[in-house]
């Protein structure tokens, strides 16, 4: 009986030892428990004194999807008139700038400038501000009656001058994708062609969905008006030399000095033409 109880006690102790060793081994092989991430303090919100981030303006063409047609009527001093349709959907910024100038009476009473067989121009000699480049696949100079802007300089693909326009009387495809077309004569082409050098542009008027167009470009209109107000009417100028960026502008040719024309060169009696002081 004693032997039987001793055997039972031995077996019980052995079982407890094996169980404890297995538990210890399991705890050593188990991966570490993930650490609880400490919660970061909430970022401080900007106070009311912080300047708000500037809002990005919508793309020009996205602003005029609901704007209807806009037209301009030009009246010359002799009573001739012609009518132009602005390309609002293709060149919305250019059209809005022109409509704003007309509403301000910018062109009224100014002389037509840059008169050639091809162009009639109006506006400032030097740009008061520039405009972004806008083009449409069908807006070209492949026919007369195009309303366009001159450029700020003579370089190809330069920005448009915001304060000088020109109209064409005939095809001039060499200006395609260079000067920016933003309107087309739809009535009175003969009146445009009859404008003489030195004639006066009595007035320009716009009609159609003008208010909606200008409303779509309210931030830009404020900037343009600030530049115009700063000029204080100095844009009313007489006819002057063509400027760089004008479609008619050509660089002055550099005078070519004839050979042996150096005043310091000695006279050559045998050849009076090469003499520093040739006889008449």
Describe the protein in words.
The protein is of the alpha+beta class. Helix content is 25%, strand content 19%. It has 6 helices and 9 strands; from the N terminus they run ααββαββββββαβαα. It has helices at residues 2-29, 60-63, 92-103, 189-193, 210-216, 218-231, and strands at residues 70-76, 81-86, 110-111, 119-123, 130-131, 146-151, 160-168, 180-187, 200-208. The longest helix has 28 residues, at 2-29. The chain is globular.
Overall radius of gyration: 40 Å
Straight-line distance between termini:
161 Å
Give the strand content.
Answer: 15-25%
Instruction: Outline the low-pLDDT stretches.
Output: 11-38, 249-258, 265-280
Major beta-sheet overview: 9 strands, antiparallel
Count up the helices. Answer: 6
Would you report the number of β strands?
9
Choose one word for the global shape: globular
List SSEs in N-to-C order: HHEEHEEEEEEHEHH
Mean pLDDT: 77
Percent helix range: 25-40%
Structural class: alpha+beta
């Amino acid at each position: 009986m004693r032997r039987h109880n001793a055997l039972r006690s031995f077996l019980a102790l052995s079982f407890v030892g094996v169980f404890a060793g297995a538990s210890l081994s399991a705890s050593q092989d188990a991966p570490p428990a993930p650490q609880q991430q400490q919660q970061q303090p909430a970022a401080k919100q900007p106070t009311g004194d912080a300047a708000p981030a500037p809002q990005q303006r919508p793309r020009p063409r996205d602003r005029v999807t609901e704007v209807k047609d806009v037209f301009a009527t030009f009246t010359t001093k002799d009573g001739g008139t012609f009518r132009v349709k602005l390309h609002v959907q293709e060149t919305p910024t250019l059209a809005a700038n022109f409509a704003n100038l007309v509403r301000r009476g910018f062109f009224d009473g100014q002389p037509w400038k840059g008169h050639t067989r091809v162009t009639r121009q109006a506006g400032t000699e030097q740009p008061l501000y520039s405009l972004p480049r806008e083009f449409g696949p069908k807006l070209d100079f492949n026919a007369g009656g195009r309303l366009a802007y001159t450029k700020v300089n003579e370089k190809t693909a330069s920005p448009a001058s915001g304060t000088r326009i020109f109209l064409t009387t005939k095809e001039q495809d060499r200006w395609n994708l260079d000067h920016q077309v933003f309107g087309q004569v739809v009535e009175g082409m003969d009146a445009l062609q009859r404008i003489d050098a030195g004639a006066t542009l009595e007035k320009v008027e716009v009609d159609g969905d003008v208010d909606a167009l200008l409303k779509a470009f309210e931030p830009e209109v404020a900037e343009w008006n600030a530049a115009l107000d700063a000029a204080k009417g100095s844009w009313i100028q007489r006819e002057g030399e063509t400027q760089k960026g004008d479609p008619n502008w050509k660089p002055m040719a550099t005078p070519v000095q004839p050979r042996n024309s150096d005043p310091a060169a000695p006279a050559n009696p045998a050849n009076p033409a090469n003499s520093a002081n040739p006889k008449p």
